[in-house]
Amino acid sequence: MRGGTRVGRVRGLGSAKQGAHHWIVQRITAVGNIVLVLWLIASILMLPGLDYGAVTGWLAQPLVAVPAMLMLVSIFWHLKLGLQVCIEDYVHEEAGKLFCLLILNFYAIAGAALGIFSIAKIAFTGAQG
Q1: Interior/surface letters 35-47, b for 16+ CB within 10 angstroms, e for the rest
Q2: 71, 118 contact by CB (below 8 A)
Q3: pLDDT band at 129 (very low <50, low <70, confident <90, very high)
Q4: How far is CA 113 from CA 69, 79, 97, 99, in A?
Q5: Is residue 76 classed exposed, middle or buried when 0-12, 13-18 and 19+ CB atoms within 10 A define those classes?
Q6: Which of 17, 49, 60, 110 could pair with 54 in a Cys bridge, judged by C-beta atoms 3.0 to 4.6 Å apart?
């Protein structure tokens, strides 16, 4: 049995000082997601039609492409932060936790990169098929 008081035994075993930052960033991305998704919904509802030409022509505009890319980054970052907490809390084996976090990071980066590339391709080539 170890000596000392209960408080003395747990000192130094507190948080890693990353929880508050993680929590704040997740809330910031949530607010950004709400604003950008509402912008997306409103913008799509104001389109004259939802055919391929109308949507790609709309997405080819710089003032539409940039917020759409920011929305993708914010959504995938928020997804990564939320799933990271789930993995850290519920995957107890260290090797499994590391593997899941690596797959999560790969998925989040690849998904955001694919979406950004797709928007950039439409924005730079215009409404061509």
Answers
A1: ebeeeeeeeeeee
A2: no
A3: low
A4: 9, 14, 24, 21
A5: buried
A6: 49
CA atoms of 23 and 65, how far apart (whole Å): 29
- Give the separation between CA 98 and CA 87, rounded to whole angstroms: 9
Nearest residue to 66 via CA among 122, 129, 125: 122
Polymer length of the chain: 129
pTM here is 0.82
With beta carbons less than 8 A apart as the criterion, state whether 54 and 114 touch. Answer: no
Query: Encoding tokens for residue 18?
Result: 């990353």
